[in-house]
């Protein structure tokens, strides 16, 4: 399977740190799968203007095509001003509305406090559902106090990330099996 992990912000280090840890788990536990980390801070994405994603050039085309070719998308996002970052929203706007059809999506969220715990439920899950993703229901929520010097220091958070990876992979395998069974119903 082709797995794309997205660090969905151009500022800060916590989301990137969490996504790097997630990618390491994926690479260690599932070495036969292709894993790509897209850190949006490393790319110069154009603002969405309604064009087809294939009509963009440079970094924008690379990032959107990488996502469109994925089987699994693991989205890491900070919470800014009680919302997802504009960079991540722009990325969603660059893609077609059915971009995540047939794809599994899971979420890892970093935030300054517990107050924004429901932002993924109220903002991110509806976007992913609208774009036709099969969404892993549980997500990992990490607060500032769980980090120290660009490392995750809370063992419970590390355990929850590990579990998110397992749940994501299990849903992906289950979904692929269901799709194979459905495809086998047709004689052509």
TrEMBL record:
Query: Can you give the residue ranges of the NADPH-dependent FMN reductase-like domain?
Result: 1-143
The entry's keywords: Flavoprotein, FMN, Oxidoreductase
| Domain of life from the UniProt record | Bacteria
Q: Name one Pfam family in it.
A: FMN_red
Task: Spell out the InterPro entries in the cross-references.
Answer: Flavoprotein-like_sf, FMN_Rdtase-like_dom, NAD(P)H-dep_FMN_reductase
Q: Could you tell me what this protein is called? A: NAD(P)H-dependent oxidoreductase
What is the species listed in this Swiss-Prot or TrEMBL entry?
Answer: Gracilibacillus salinarum
């Amino acid at each position: 399977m082709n797995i794309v992990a997205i660090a969905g912000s151009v500022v800060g280090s916590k989301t990137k740190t969490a996504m790097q840890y997630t990618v390491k788990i994926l690479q260690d536990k599932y070495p036969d799968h292709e894993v790509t980390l897209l850190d949006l801070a490393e790319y110069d994405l154009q603002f969405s203007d309604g064009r087809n994603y294939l009509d963009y050039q440079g970094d924008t085309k690379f990032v959107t095509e990488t996502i469109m070719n994925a089987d699994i998308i693991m989205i890491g996002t900070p919470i800014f001003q009680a919302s997802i970052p504009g960079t991540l929203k722009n990325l969603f706007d660059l893609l077609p509305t059915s971009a995540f059809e047939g794809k599994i999506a899971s979420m890892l969220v970093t935030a300054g406090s517990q107050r924004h715990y429901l932002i993924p439920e109220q903002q991110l899950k509806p976007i992913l559902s609208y774009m036709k993703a099969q969404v892993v229901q549980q997500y990992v929520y990490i607060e500032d106090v769980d980090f120290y010097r660009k490392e995750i220091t809370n063992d419970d958070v590390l355990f929850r990330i590990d579990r998110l990876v397992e749940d994501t992979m299990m849903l992906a395998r289950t979904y692929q099996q269901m799709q194979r069974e459905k495809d086998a119903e047709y004689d052509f």
